[in-house]
Design a protein that fits this description.
- The chain is an all-alpha fold and about 70 residues long.
- It is about 65% helix and about 0% strand.
- The chain is built from 3 helices and no strands.
- The protein starts with 6 loop residues before the first helix and ends with a helix.
Length: about 70
């Protein structure tokens, strides 16, 4: 395997994880600061999308101007 995990190693790790059951111990953020930080986990960067649109519009405008100059 490319990542170094053989099928045997993967099976052993899966078995160990099922015995540890970490999903039952997960509590999420407890402090107010931690809760504020995790609220931003799903944020996709709204400004970047706007800037990408602007860059595309400027690129199209440059192409039109270059066609007029010819």
């Amino acid at each position: 395997m490319a990542n170094g995990w053989t099928p045997e190693r993967r099976a052993r790790q899966a078995e160990l994880i099922r015995t540890w059951r970490p999903w039952e111990k997960s509590t999420g953020p407890r402090t107010d600061e931690g809760k504020v930080r995790t609220r931003h986990n799903g944020f996709k960067g709204g400004h970047w999308l706007t800037l990408r649109g602007l860059a595309a519009a400027l690129r199209a405008q440059r192409e039109v101007l270059a066609g007029i100059e010819r």
